[in-house]
Amino acid sequence: MLKDKTIVLGVTGGIAAYKAADIVSRLKKQGAHVHCVMTEGAQAFLTPLTLRTLSGNPVITAMFDEPKQWNVEHVALADKADFFLIAPATANIIGKVANGIADDFLSTTIMATTAQVIFAPAMNVNMYNNPIFQENMAKLKKAGYLFIEPGEGDLACGYKGKGRMAEPEKIVNFLQDLLNRQKDLEGINILVTAGPTREPIDPVRYITNRSSGKMGYSIAERAVKRGACVTLISGPTSLTPPEGVNLIKVETAEEMFSKVKEHYASNQVIIKAAAVSDYRPKFYQEAKIKKSEGDLQIVLGRNPDILNFLGQNKGKRILVGFAAETNDLQVNAQKKITKKNLDFIVANDVTEKGAGFNYDTNKVTLFFPSGEQKNLPLMSKLQVADIILDEVKLLLSNKGVS
Ligand code: CTP
User: Fold this and answer.
1) Model confidence over 25-63: pLDDT tens digits?
2) 303 lines ligand 1 (CB under 6 A)
3) Does 274 sit in the ligand 1 pocket, CB within 6 Å?
4) pLDDT of res. 289
5) Catalytic annotation on 157?
6) Average of pLDDT values for 7-17?
7) 323 C-alpha vs ligand 1 centroid, how far in Å?
8) 62, 102, 127, 157: which is the annotated catalytic residue?
9) Which of 24, 372, 382, 386 has the most CB atoms around it within 10 Å of its CB?
10) Which DSSP category does 15 fall into?
11) DSSP string covering 187-243, please?
12) Distant-in-sequence, close-in-space partners of 238: CB < 8 Å, separation ≥ 6
């Protein structure tokens, strides 16, 4: 329930602004305190009086109103707010925030608030697909802003496609889910592995793979935010570790194995997002290999399969594996679940656009031992992380752990 939660609702100028009234009334019905801010554009579609009546609070309509309705206390309120929702959010407000422009009350407050900001975009399909808008959205997602995907269908502008603001019911459910997740993993120890491994050939060369570590780091970030105590064992990446995690840096698969063995016992959940190299050069050359006329052959030897070890020593722990595949996703993923004794596996086809290595987004399918599968649409890695953690949470509850 959103009872007694404080929500600041920013309304920008689009035909969907009329739906803001429905959002306010749904939030009020749940017992939330709602404070509305309207841009000038929004007021062309909906009167402040409507939102004032529904919310029971004054509506902020301009930065320099006399007498000022919004003062320092109001900014503090935006800070204290549980959520700062912008619905509908035009390409304009998203573009402004993404580029640091604060030229009216709403954009200024969004940039000043420390509350979780959520955008519910609404616009013409071509604007939505415009690469500049997509870039702005990606930039904001990366900075931790959340987006409620618009729906597809007939748009008010006469076009068909993606751009219709999510329905008020869906928006309110989104906030509800977000709230339910806050600190729901308190008291749980989670071990996450991330990134590639690096297998040295000689002092200057190594074998590695294309993993960026983003998926594992996103899981660690969300798990910490949700109250878990997180140990992140990471291969070499260029990422900034999320605040609050216990980071252990490794290079090779063997080092990762040794650190996992050291730490796994004290964790109830292990999520193996790392792309561990299956092989390593069998003979490490102490001196740099010099070129010669003929071919050079490097003999590779097998690395330990860390996930396999964990599956065999799992006990009551929840064990989640990853599978990056280029073909036969389902068959390969199901095989790995059985072979490695997993609770579920997160599989992605790395040949899909926007999925896999180095993207901020991912498109994955979760496979379960029962044969059940959940296909998720393309979404940010942080959102994928939350869904993985939701499944983990459910499994923990089923096992009576929380
Ligand atoms: N993994 C591991 N240790 C390894 C290799 C992989 O722990 N030496 C883990 C990864 O962290 C990931 C999962 O196993 O969670 C990937 O499964 P795996 O079958 O090893 O994938 P591939 O290495 O791609 O296997 P295959 O070559 O059979 O596709």
Assistant:
1) 999 999 999 999 999 999 999 999 999 999 999 998 876
2) yes
3) yes
4) 95
5) yes
6) 96
7) 7
8) 157
9) 24
10) G
11) T-EEEEEESB--EEEETTEEE--S--SHHHHHHHHHHHHTT-EEEEEE-S-SPPPPT
12) 212
CATH number of 189-279+296-398: 3.40.50.10300
- Pocket-testing residue among 269, 279, 305, ligand 1, by greatest number of atoms within 8 A of Cβ: 305
User: Is-contact 367 330, C-beta < 8 A?
Assistant: yes
Q: In the chain, list all ranges with CATH 3.40.50.1950.
A: 6-181
For atom 14 of ligand 1, the residue with the nearest CA is 307
The Å distance, Cα 54 to ligand 1 centre, comes to 54
Residues in the chain: 402
* Angle 207-210-213 from CA coordinates, rounded to 5°: 110
Q: What are phi and psi of 203, to 5 degrees?
A: -60, -20
Question: Measuring from atom 8 of ligand 1, which residue has the nearest CA?
Answer: 305
Q: Does residue 323 line the site of ligand 1, with CB under 6 A? A: yes
Q: Is the CB of 235 under 6 A from ligand 1?
A: no
Average confidence (pLDDT) over 341-352: 90
**Is the confidence at residue 257, as pLDDT, over 90?**
yes
Portions of the chain given CATH number 3.40.50.10300: 189-279+296-398
Instruction: Name the residue of 278, 313, 325 to mutate for ligand 1: max ligand atoms within 8 A of Cβ.
Output: 278
Alpha carbon dihedral 110, 113, 117, 123, in 10-degree steps, equals: 0
For ligand 1, the distance from its centroid to the CA atom of residue 276, given in whole angstroms, is 6
Nearest atom of ligand 1 to the alpha carbon of 321: 15
| pLDDT over 60 at 112, yes or no | yes
Q: Average pLDDT of 210-232?
A: 95
Half-sphere exposure of 54 (CA within 13 A, CB side): 23
Topology given in CATH for the domain delimited by 6-181: Rossmann fold (3.40.50)
Cα distances (Å, whole numbers) of residue 134 to 94, 224, 380: 10, 28, 12
